[in-house]
Design goal:
Elements lengths: L2 E6 L11 E8 L2 H9 L8 E4 L5 E2 L4 E8 L4 E6 L3 E7 L4 H10 L24 E2 L2 E2 L4 E8 L5 E5 H4 L16 E11 L9 H10 L6 H15 L7 E5 L5 E2 L1 H10 L5 E3 L5 E3 L1 H7 L6 E2 L2 E3 L6 E4 L5 H19 L8 E2 L1
Parallel strand pairs: 2-5, 3-5, 4-20
Antiparallel strand pairs: 1-2, 6-7, 7-12, 8-9, 10-11, 10-12, 13-19, 14-16, 15-16, 17-18, 18-19
The protein binds uridine-diphosphate-2(N-acetylglucosaminyl) butyric acid.
The site of uridine-diphosphate-2(N-acetylglucosaminyl) butyric acid has 17 residues, from β13 and α7.
Amino acid sequence: MQIETGVSLKPYNTFGLPALAQTLVRIESDADVRRVLDHPELGKLPKFVLGGGSNIVLTRDVSQVVLKVEVKGRRIVEERADAWIVEAGGGENWHDFVTWTLDQGLPGLENMALIPGTVGASPVQNIGAYGVELKDRFESLDAVYLVTGRGATLDRPSCRFGYRDSVFKQSLAGKSLITRVRFRLPKPWQPLLGYLDLERKMAETGQHAPTPRQVYDWVCEIRRAKLPDPAVVGNAGSFFKNPVVTVEQCRDIIGRDPEIVHYPMPDGSFKLAAGWLIDACGWKGKSIGRAGVYEKQALVLINRGGAIGAEVVTLARAIQESVYGRFGIRLEPEPVVV
Ligand code: EPU
């Protein structure tokens, strides 16, 4: 186990924000976690688990011991009558894993192609896109508790998945490290094409019975057209969650802004498009310091080059205030501010 000190985290967060880790340890196995916990000095210190760095805003140097998850490996676990079970190490790149499953002829994750980040981070915020959420394909995961060093396997109910939420953002926040995740890919495969952008692709191409690879290509095209590539422009995907409001609140807002983009939810509430709200407040393309609002999708905040975390936070607060001022809605950030 190699202990590194004074490590720049700039290459390890997709926003490209500057911050140093006082101490960083690369975790390649469960045993590595236990080695850190048993270490005479590191064992006692607070820990910070870092995945792909695609869901954090670093505003300061990190004094906790950074555990950078680099557990690798992908495998087919088993074939059941109604599904394939596949597994990947927490340190695997999410998109590469999705591509690998398709290469194996095992579809089911294609709607979530090109989401930045790692496999281990995917359950933390229950990633989702184009009508599919991680929880819809989740089987179980292995984690190590950071206080006791005990390993555990968590099934779907134990993870308490919600919209961009899970037990790992709530009671287990900062308390465990996810080493491996298993996915359930249902048989027979059925395309999920209900999302407006995918319906448009079907209409454009005239293909109404696409293959998994076709859906994957469409999702990649849609994302590339409206979301910035973190390798080119620093960002953390959607910066705010889409707010959920009551039918009365929704009616009230529609009364004032008939154009508002809203989706009915199964429980009778409505989800509003945060990107639309921010756009309506005139933020698209605007900046505060070196942090800006992406020109093609107002829900995405970007680093225009050399931004620091404080600039991103200042911009986010200014957006929250103007959306609250006009619509009376409090936007909740998706990434974790450190
Ligand atoms: N819109 C605007 N102006 C904008 C941005 C969006 O009017 O500047 C409108 C769009 O026209 C559309 C609606 O808002 O009618 C929704 O936009 P979009 O379809 O792009 O999806 P989103 O709600 O902005 C969510 C997820 C994304 C996910 C897409 C596709 C959240 C917070 N975001 O975005 O997830 O890729 O749906 O499923 O739920 C992420 O979480 O990081 C992420 C990128």
